[in-house]
Amino acid sequence: MTNIQRERKRSVLGRGLKMPLLVVALISAACAGGADGGDTTIPAENTTVPAGDTTTVPAVTTTEGSVEPQTLTMWSYSGREQADQNLVPAFEAASGNTILREFIPQPYEQTVLARWAAGERPDILDWGAIGNWMIQLDPEENLIAFNDEEFVSRYTVDDYISNSGAVNGQYYSAVTGYPYMDGVLFNRKVFAELGIAVPTNFVEVAAACETIKQEMPDVAPIFSGGGDQWPLQILPFIVWNDAIQTTNLIEELNTNQVDWTDPRIVEGIETQMELFDAGCFNEDILSATFDNEQTALMDGSAAMVFQGTWLIQSLLGVYDQAEVDENVGFAPVSATTNVTSWQSGNAISLPKTGDPAREAAAMEYVRFATGEGYQQYLEDTFQFPIFEGYDPPAESAVAFIEANDAFLANSVPQFQQTLLASYGFFEAYLQEMVSGQKTPLEVAEALETEFERSAAAIGLEGFGG
């Protein structure tokens, strides 16, 4: 790490982290985990499970002579970093409760929604505080609200809770993660050796691709783990940032004023296809994985990966921070500008199960995750705090600092944050496009069909009649 980078790190960690979110949102959330865009909309008759009065959930104490410890179930994203997983055993040790954690395979959201529709409920649910996902759980009927919880008043990012998983003024997401930013993760050594600037828009991305192909034919200009499908979505998401910032694109989609075949949407899909046709992607794009993205970025066999900052966190779970700092940087990029997009970080929701003791114990987990266990969570995940009263990690990866700088300088909510219905298996449609089975316009048409279906099913005004 250079002296300049060290000075930037000290400067960022030393200044206050309280900041406004540049967001105009009805409901929003992170993805988390991954950025899956698929859809399994739940018909209204399938969303209700028996539940007692859970408006106020009592605390559960586990000291000797008090309420008996509970065994809780938890559904989580597969591939969670060990640092993120550490909260569970820490809570178990502190409380005497037991959590049986089930890691749901990808596609996570669709798998969860299918089981949800069949009436299954965990006690604790990892769920992205993102508009189009939250609304599918019918949260007012099925989730416990956090409005009366103490942690709600401690967010350092202004209005974070009200813009993450909130529906009609009720807070259904306990967000513990700092916002994720989408952008280009780049190999510093590749760009330094070539002597070219990191792209700040997609015209420059295409130019960098041509230079890399000519000067470093063994390096993939862009690497994507298309075998996992979901990574294919990130690049179009990023291209859409300009339109989100300068137009009312998401509001127009939510109110059925425009279709998904709108040129602003199609442009992002076409950009990906044009770069693929130009030979900018790795040859094994249809079989490569998210893990392969990380390896290629670190060893220099890839110059660029379009991803969220969760990739940095994943790298830090495998490599020394010094290695990550030396090899990986983050830069904001969109169609014609360098605006970045953010989405809510890790979040917890609590389903109504009808079992007061288990619901109370699950709420204790939320209180632990947002309180007693939070400082260790920050140290384990290398994240900036989003609650007052906690210190940032002693050291933070330079790429995280670069992403945070981009967030503060010029950012918009990632398009799913404020979208009110689901849009189908975007990742699968993109895989079909890359394999020659769909055109960009046909991908957009599939998104429109699914969005109309989903919006009508949840009763979104302007759809279904």
Overall helicity? 25-40%
Terminal Cα span: 59 Å
Low-confidence stretches: 1-66
Counted beta strands: 15
Helix count equals: 20
Strand content: 5-15%
Q: Structural class of the helices, strands and pairings?
A: alpha/beta
The rounded Rg comes to 22 Å
Shape descriptor: globular
Largest sheet: 6 strands, mixed
Task: Write down the overall mean pLDDT.
Answer: 85
Describe what is shown at a glance.
The chain is α/β, with parallel strands linked by helices and about 475 residues long.
Explain the overall architecture.
By secondary structure, the chain is α/β, with parallel strands linked by helices. 39% of the residues lie in helices and 13% in strands. It has 20 helices and 15 strands. The chain has helices at 3-14, 82-85, 87-95, 108-117, 131-134, 139-142, 188-194, 202-215, 234-239, 241-246, 249-254, 263-277, 290-299, 310-316, 321-327, 356-369, 374-381, 398-409, 426-434, 440-457; strands at residues 19-20, 71-77, 98-104, 124-126, 157-158, 166-167, 170-171, 174-175, 180-187, 220-222, 302-308, 328-331, 340-343, 347-349, 411-413. The strands form 4 sheets. Strands 9, 10, 11, 12, 13 and 15 form a 6-stranded mixed beta sheet that branches. It has a 5-stranded mixed beta sheet with strand order 3-2-4-14-8. A hairpin with a 2-residue loop joins strand 6 (166-167) and strand 7 (170-171). Helix 12 crosses helix 20 and helix 19 (426-434) runs antiparallel to helix 20. The longest helix has 18 residues, at 440-457. The chain is globular, with a radius of gyration of 22 Å. It starts with a helix and ends in an 8-residue tail after the last helix.
